[in-house]
Amino acid sequence: MSISGNQMELREEDIRKHYAAAAALLEGFDHTPRIAKPQAEGKAPERSPGIARSRRFRSTTPGLVTRSTARAEGVHLIARIEAADEEDPLTSPLQATLQHALRRALAVSLAMAEAYADVSGLADLKRANLAGSLDGARKGEFTELLAAEALIAAHVFANATAYLLAPHGSEAQAEVGEAEELLTDNAPLALHGALWELDQKLALHAPDDAHLIAAAAAYAEQLMERAALRAQNAPRLEAFTAASWRVESDDLTINGFEPAAKAKSTTLTMAFKKPHEVVGNHIAKYQAMRLSKMLMAYDFDRRLNPFAEMGGFIFTFMGDGKPGTGKTTLIQMMAGLIHDYCQNAGYAFRYQNFGIDNIDSYQGKSGQNAKSFIQNVIDPGVIGFGTIDDIDQIAGKRGDRQSSAGQQEVTAVFMEAFAGANTVVRGNCTFGMFSNYPENVDDALRQRAGARFLVDGPQTREDYIDILTLLMGKNHEIPLGEHDLYGAQEIKKAVARSFEAHNRPQEPGLAEVFGRVHEQIGELDDLAKLGTYLKAIQQADERFTGRAIKNITDAVKVRAMDFELPDEWMENPERFLFKDYDTKSAMIAELRVPITVDMVVQEINRYADSEFRYADKSDEVAIENMVRDFGRQEEAKRRYLEGKG
Question: Per the database entry, which stretches of residues form a coiled coil (predicted)?
Answer without folding.
Answer: none
